[in-house]
Amino acid sequence: MTKTKSRILTALALTTALTAPALIAPMFTAPAAIAAPQVVQDFSDLAAKVTPAVVNVAVTMKAGKDDGDDVRASGPQDKQMEEFMQRFAERFGQQGKPQGRPDGKQRPQGEKGQAVGTGFIVDAKGTIVTNYHVVSKADSITVTMSDGTKLPAKMMGGDEKTDLAVLKVESDKALPFVTFGDASKVRVGQAVMAVGNPFGLGGTVTTGIVSARGRDIQSGPFDDYIQTDAAINRGNSGGPLFDMDGNVIGINTAIYSPSGGNIGLGFAIPSSLAQPIVAQLKDNGRVERGLLGVQIQPLTKEIAESLSLKSEKGALVAMVQPDSPALAAGIKSGDVIMSVDGKAVDGIKELTRTISSMKPGTSVKLGFWRDGKDMTVTAKVGDQKEDSAIVKAKADGQPAAKPEPMAYGVSLAPITPEARQQMKLDAEVKGVLVAAVEPGSPADDQGLKAGDILQQVGRDAIDSPKMAAEKLKEAKTTGKPVLMKVYREGMTRFVAISPRAA
């Protein structure tokens, strides 16, 4: 072999050695590792641990306590959401109302109705937690343990605002119980397990995850629900929602559903809210709540702008109740409460929860905004009793007063003695009557309607249509929304109305 031929073969050999792996690599690639089959989480040990402490609650009610359809949580202010809530938002369990007869006929007079729900034991002495709406109208209550033992129960106390109730059973032996966990540490996505009595079938275990936290479904002043996709149905009301350590992090209370069955939208009262309520009901049979004595409303962008606020955080004081801690401390209608004891108040829910959780008699420092300035006062929290009666004022028709055309699309008239009598207005209600609202006007956009009482423009109280016209004319020159205080059906609120576009 010549040297030239030898060099060519060597070059070819080197080329083959360098390129061959790339050409034949796919033929010799090691097979991909087969993924190990996913192991489905086993909840059996957890279920065995906690289910003995979960009970079925059967309620018997005398005839005459049936109000008809299930009570539904009230919808939010937004019209579309309100319609959605009215059509689809249902509380499960029987809402403390009797079930109809299986044949669909009316129950004969004197026949008792029945309802079912769920509860769970929180101490060895037989203290049971459930929903208030399950037992609020009970004539008698019977709980059934997981082993079939039936025990009569009595109601120790209930709280409608948080929909919680505490029952008590007597037993000659220590009963199994579960403990509350820390709901503040609950994370979206973590696994949870619900145990309950859906449709009266008895102890049922379902699992899922925490879908969301802090849900407000407009069912009450303390809404702060944990949302879960664990299957929850009618009869689960009052049942526990467990974390994976077997601690109760929520009390299953409400669902969204078009049919009354589960579609993966369940809501549970967090243990952080329930635990102190349960403790008070157990010890006192009632809940002591702090009271400030103000009617509040959320801030809108327009209201914040009219008050020269940089954000919409805070709670606007619409009305201060007579002889209230707020009045004694110097709080006025139109103030915006921004903080409590140095802690910022983001909105009306935070203020309500903060003050309500305080023991009556506690001194609290309130930070608020008034006339473009930050101010601070100290108030002594009162005791929240049953809601006091408020004089109702409803316009059954427009009074025979000649309206005076006003700016912003609203016509005002004096409150005549005839109008006051027709609308059943208390003598203390001052202001001018909204006689008409122009459709599509700024006033109409903000919800004003004939029969409202305009009491204040900006910071000035109004006592005549002429005065209102002057104040509105002044406000229009600023180009900013003007704040108006409006009285309707015993309640006052503020609205901010922008001037018409030029």
**What's the total helix number?**
11
User: How much helix, percentage-wise, in residues?
Assistant: 10-25%
How does CATH name the architecture of the largest domain? Beta Barrel
Overall 3D geometry?
elongated
> Which residues form runs of ≥5 with pLDDT under 50?
2-28, 66-106, 386-405
Report how far the terminal alpha carbons are from each other: 102 Å
> Helices and strands: which structural class?
alpha+beta
Q: What's the arrangement of strands in the largest beta sheet?
A: 1-3-4-7-6-5
CATH topology of the largest domain: Thrombin, subunit H
Beta-sheet strand percentage?
25-35%
Mean pLDDT value: 78
Task: Specify the oligomeric state.
Answer: single chain
Largest sheet entry: 6 strands, antiparallel, barrel
* Cα-atom radius of gyration: 32 Å
Structural domain count:
3
Number of strands: 27
Walk me through this protein's architecture.
- With 502 residues, the chain is of the alpha+beta class.
- It folds into three domains: 42-287, Thrombin, subunit H; 290-383, Pdz3 Domain (Roll); 407-497, Roll (Pdz3 Domain).
- It contains eleven helices and 27 strands.
- It has a six-stranded antiparallel beta barrel. A six-stranded antiparallel β-barrel has the order 8-9-10-13-12-11. Strands 15, 16, 17, 18, 19 and 20 form a six-stranded antiparallel beta sheet that branches.
- Strand 11 (240-242) and strand 12 (248-256) form a beta hairpin.
- The radius of gyration is 32 Å and the shape is elongated.
- Mean pLDDT is 78; it is low at 2-28, 66-106 and 386-405.
